[in-house]
Amino acid sequence: MFDDREALVLSIKNAENLHGHLGPFLVIGVKMAKLAMKELNASENKVLNMQIFAKLPLITPFSCVLDGIQATTHCTVGNRKLRVKSSDNDITVTFKLKGQDKTVKIRVKPQLVEELMSQLSKGIPNEKLAWMIAAKPEGELFEFQKR
Ligand SMILES: [Zn+2]
What is the number of structural domains in the chain? Predict the structure, then answer.
């Protein structure tokens, strides 16, 4: 049995493999997906009958969030379990298991996005910021709604 930290590292490596590089917004996607799956009591090791609706700016680095979600949930644009809509600045993702009423809505804290953009512009390496995000508790990253 892996502990949570080891499981997170594996998920991040898996997402990096799909995405082609490691960065903080990719890790945000991974952590977001894991939080939603935990809240919905969804098992990680099977293909999920989940519907995900993501609203975010469709430019990098923001769009990197999508690959973190796809790698972790196996809900993809291609299998139509992930729908994507462009937004001006907000990163908000809604997760729902098919046949269940529960919905989890997760928004990346705007001040975190600002902080990351400023650190990236100062030349702090993507990988360093990625592991910094990995170490942060969910409460510092996300605003969270469960219905
Ligand atoms: Zn990226």
Answer: 1
